[in-house]
Design goal:
Blueprint lengths: L2 H67 L5 H19 L5 H26 L2 H59 L1 H32 L12 H22 L9 H17 L7 E9 L2 H8 L1 H18 L5 E6 L2 E9 L1 H16 L2 E4 L2 E4 L2 E7 L6 H17 L5 E4 L6 H20 L2 E7 L1 E2 L7 E10 L5 E2 L1 H10 L3 H18 L7 E7 L8 H13 L7 E6 H4 L3 H12 L4 E7 L7 H5 L4 E4 L1 H6 L4 H16 L3 E4 L5 H10 L3 E2 L8 E2 L3
Parallel strand pairs: 6-7, 10-12, 12-13, 13-14, 14-15, 15-16, 16-17
Antiparallel strand pairs: 1-3, 1-6, 2-3, 4-5, 8-10, 8-18, 9-17, 10-11
Helix pairs in contact: 1-2, 1-4, 1-5, 2-3, 3-4, 5-6, 8-9, 9-10, 14-15
Length: about 675
C-alpha cells in the first residue's frame, strides 16, 4: 500500500467509526427491550406456578383424603383438579424454557397422571376390599406425591432465580448504556487522534525499523526486512536485504557443512543464557549443550585423504540436522567437533536425542581401498544450570565428551549439574560401572515386604520384592542411591530382567514356599514398558517358570505408564494374557489423572505413600485417599496403601475400604532368602 492510501484510510476510519457507534447504541437499546420483555414473561410465569402450586396442594390434600380415609366421593373432583394441573403445566411447557425446567414439568405431569390412575383404580375397588387395598396403595402413593411436591418447588425456585438473574442483567445493561453515552462523547476526538497516530506510525516506524536493521547488519546480525510498510519502504528494504544476505550467511555459517560456525553458535548461546537469566524456566523446560567429537577422525584424514574426511563431515552434519527439532541449534565448532543447543527439553529427552545421533553416526560408513569402515562419535552433554558463562558451559560439555572417550568411545556422557568439578563426575561414572558390575556379577540382593489384607483374611501371603545392591565395603545400598543413575544411563530394563530372573530362580529352589503365597509384587521401570525384548523375556520366563503367573503382580508407576500409554497398554495386555496382574503404583503423585484407570488394564491401585503417611494430619491428603478409594471401587480395582506405620491409620484405612496395607506397622523389609 502506498503512502497516500493511508491518508484515505484516515478519513474513512472517522466515517466508519460514527456508523459503528450508531449501530452499537441501537443494538444495546434493542437488547434492553428484549431483556425487559423476558423479565416480564418470567414474572407472569412465576404467577402461573404460584397458581399451580396452590392447585397442587389442594389436589394432594384431596388425594390424601381419598387414600388415607377412603372418601371415594372426592375422586371425581380430585381427578378434574389433576387434569387442570396437567393442562396448565402443558401450556407452560410449550414456552421455550430450560431443559431442566422442562424435565421437571414432564416429571410433574407424569406423577399427576400416576395419582389419577390410582384414583381410577380406587374407584373400581369393591367397598369391602377398599380399606385393605388403600393400606397397600399408600406407600406407592407416597413415592409419587413427594416427587410431585419436589418438582413444583423446583419450578418455583428455578423461576425465582431466573427472575433475579434477568433483573440483574437488565440493570447492568441500563447502567452500561448510561456509561456508554458519556464515553461516546469523547470517542470521536480520541478516534481522530488514534487514526492519525496509526497512519503516522505506519509510515515513520517502518523507516526507523529499516535504519535499525541496517545498523544491526553492520554489527554482524541478520538483517530483518520490513514486511508491513508502504510499498516504497518495502522496495527499499528488499534491496538492503539482498545486499546483506550473502555477507551475513558467510559470516555465520561453516562453508563445508552449511551449519552455524563457532562465532555464530556462541553468540546464539549467549543470547539464550541472557534470556534465561531473566525468564528462568522450570527443570522440565530445560535446555542442554551437546558436544560431539568424532572418534579417530584424524586417522581418516591421514589415511583416506581430506576428500573422504570432508564427505564424512558433510554426512555427519546431515544426520545432526535430521535428528534434532526445528528449533534446536546445530553448529560445527571446527575440525571434527560439533555442538547442538537442545531447547525446551527434559534430561531424558536430551539423552534420547544424543543416543539417536550416536547410533546414526555409528551406522555411517566410509570406503577405502575396497573396504568399508564404520564411524563413531563420543558425545558429552551439559545442562544450562550447570555453569554461569558460555566458556564454562562449553568446558563442561567438553569434559563430559572427554569422559565419554575415556569410557571406551562411541558413548554418551552427561555432565552432572550438581557436580562442581571433573572428579565428582568421575565418581558418578564409577557408580555406573558399579551397576554394570553388579549386573554382571549378581551383586544385587532381593528383599521383600509383606502386604497385609485389611478387609478379609487371606489364606496366602502377599509381599513386594525390593532391591538392594552390595557395595564395595560389604554394606547394602538402597534403591534411592542407585536407581537415578540406572534410569539416567538406561540400565533399568536390565535390572528388571535380573530381578524377574532372580525371583524365578529363588522359587525354583524353594517350591515348597509357593503354596502359601498368594501374590508376589515386582516393580517394573518406565523404560521396561517400551522394551520389546524385556516383554519377550517375561513371557518366556513365566511360561517355563515354576511360579504360577497368576501369583505375579507387576507394579508400574502412573508417571511411567503415561509417557507412552498406548505402548504400556499393549505391554500390559500381552503380559496379562499369561494370568499376571498389574498394579498402578504411587497413584496420587505425578499427573494423577483418574482417566488412566480406565485406559490402563490394571487390577490394583497402590496409593502413594506420601499421601497415606500425612492423611491423618492433612485434610487434603485424607480427601485424596478417600477419593482414590471411591474411584478404585467403582473401577473394580483393589486398593493398597503404602507407608502404614500405626494402628490408628490402619483403622481409618479399613473404614475407607482399603483392601491391603503395607508398611513398618506390619513388617519391615527382610531378605527374600535369609
Amino acid at each position: 500500500m502506498r503512502i497516500r492510501s493511508y491518508l484515505a484510510i484516515l478519513v474513512l476510519a472517522c466515517l466508519l467509526g460514527a456508523y459503528l457507534l450508531e449501530q452499537v447504541i441501537g443494538h444495546h437499546f434493542n437488547h434492553v427491550q428484549i431483556l425487559a420483555s423476558k423479565h416480564n414473561e418470567s414474572l407472569l410465569r412465576a404467577k402461573d406456578f404460584e397458581r399451580i402450586e396452590s392447585s397442587t396442594s389442594q389436589f394432594l390434600v384431596s388425594t390424601d383424603l381419598v387414600i388415607a380415609s377412603g372418601n371415594t366421593y372426592l375422586i371425581l373432583g380430585t381427578k378434574n383438579m389433576g387434569d387442570y394441573i396437567n393442562a396448565e403445566l402443558s401450556k407452560i411447557k410449550s414456552v421455550n424454557l430450560s431443559s431442566e425446567l422442562n424435565a421437571e414439568i414432564n416429571k410433574a405431569i407424569i406423577n399427576v397422571n400416576k395419582i389419577n390412575a390410582y384414583l381410577d383404580i380406587i374407584a373400581d375397588v369393591p367397598e369391602q376390599e377398599l380399606i385393605a387395598y388403600l393400606s397397600q396403595l399408600l406407600p406407592d402413593y407416597d413415592a409419587v406425591s413427594l416427587p410431585l411436591v419436589n418438582c413444583i418447588q423446583f419450578m418455583m425456585l428455578e423461576t425465582k432465580n431466573t427472575i433475579n438473574q434477568d433483573a440483574l442483567v437488565l440493570e447492568d445493561e441500563l447502567n452500561f448504556i448510561v456509561v456508554f453515552a458519556w464515553v461516546s462523547r469523547g470517542f470521536f476526538f480520541i478516534l481522530i487522534i488514534a487514526v492519525w497516530w496509526w497512519a503516522n506510525r505506519k509510515i515513520c516506524n517502518p523507516l526507523n525499523g529499516l535504519i535499525d536493521s541496517s545498523h544491526k547488519a553492520l554489527a554482524g546480525y541478520d538483517f530483518q526486512s520490513t514486511e508491513k510498510a508502504p510499498t516504497e519502504i518495502i522496495a527499499l528494504s528488499n534491496d538492503f536485504k539482498l545486499l546483506t544476505q550473502t555477507l551475513s550467511h558467510q559470516a555465520s555459517h561453516d562453508p563445508l557443512t552449511e551449519l552455524y560456525n563457532r562465532r555464530a553458535f556462541e553468540r546464539n548461546l549467549n543470547e539464550v543464557m541472557k534470556h534465561n537469566e531473566v525468564n528462568f524456566m522450570p527443570e522440565q523446560q530445560n535446555w542442554f549443550l551437546c558436544f560431539i567429537d568424532l572418534d579417530y577422525f584424524k586417522t581418516i584424514n591421514d589415511t583416506c585423504g581430506h576428500a573422504i574426511g570432508d564427505q564424512v563431515l558433510v554426512n555427519v552434519a546431515r544426520i545432526l540436522k535430521q535428528k534434532v527439532r526445528s528449533y534446536d541449534t546445530v553448529a560445527r565448532l571446527g575440525g571434527d567437533e560439533f555442538a547442538i543447543l537442545i531447547h525446551r527439553c527434559t534430561e531424558q529427552k536430551a539423552l534420547e536425542i544424543a543416543n539417536q545421533i550416536k547410533q546414526s553416526i555409528n551406522q555411517l560408513t566410509y570406503h577405502w581401498n575396497g573396504e568399508d569402515f564404520q564411524l563413531s562419535a563420543s558425545i558429552g552433554i551439559a545442562s544450562r544450570v550447570c555453569e554461569s558463562s558460555v566458556t564454562e558451559l562449553l568446558n563442561s560439555a567438553d569434559i563430559a565428551c572427554g569422559m565419554a572417550k575415556s569410557s571406551g568411545r562411541n558413548t554418551v556422557c552427561l555432565f552432572e549439574n550438581t557436580q562442581q568439578d571433573c572428579t565428582n563426575n568421575k565418581q558418578t561414572l564409577l557408580s555406573v560401572h558399579h551397576l554394570n558390575n553388579a549386573l554382571n556379577n549378581d551383586l544385587f540382593v532381593l528383599y521383600k515386604q509383606d502386604i497385609v489384607p485389611l478387609q478379609r483374611q487371606k489364606v496366602g501371603k502377599s509381599f513386594e520384592i525390593l532391591l538392594r545392591i552390595l557395595g564395595n565395603d560389604g554394606q547394602l545400598i538402597g534403591p534411592a542411591d542407585f536407581l537415578p543413575v540406572a534410569e539416567r544411563y538406561l540400565l533399568t530394563s536390565k535390572i528388571d530382567r535380573w530381578v524377574i530372573n532372580a525371583v524365578c530362580e529363588h522359587f525354583k529352589s524353594h517350591c515348597d514356599q509357593l503354596e502359601s503365597i498368594e501374590t508376589i509384587a515386582i516393580n517394573l521401570s518406565g523404560h521396561s514398558l517400551t522394551d520389546n525384548d524385556l516383554e519377550a523375556f517375561i513371557i518366556d520366563k513365566l511360561t517355563h517358570c515354576v511360579v504360577p503367573a497368576n501369583k505375579i503382580c507387576f507394579e508400574i508407576t502412573e508417571t511411567a505408564a503415561i509417557k507412552n500409554i498406548n505402548r504400556a497398554r499393549l505391554f500390559m495386555k500381552n503380559i496379562k494374557a499369561l494370568g499376571c496382574q498389574f498394579a498402578l503404583d504411587d497413584f496420587g503423585s505425578g499427573h494423577s489423572s483418574y482417566a488412566y484407570i480406565k485406559q490402563l488394564p490394571t487390577d490394583k491401585i497402590k496409593i502413594d505413600g506420601a499421601i497415606v503417611a500425612n492423611m491423618m494430619t492433612n485434610q487434603i491428603d485424607f480427601t485424596a485417599v478417600k477419593s482414590i478409594c471411591d474411584i478404585g471401587k467403582a473401577a473394580k480395582q483393589e486398593i493398597i496403601a503404602e507407608f502404614v506405620e500405626d494402628s490408628r491409620l490402619v483403622e481409618v484405612l479399613t473404614a475407607l475400604g482399603v483392601d491391603y496395607a503395607q508398611g513398618y506397622y506390619f513388617a519391615k523389609p527382610v531378605p527374600l532368602a535369609p
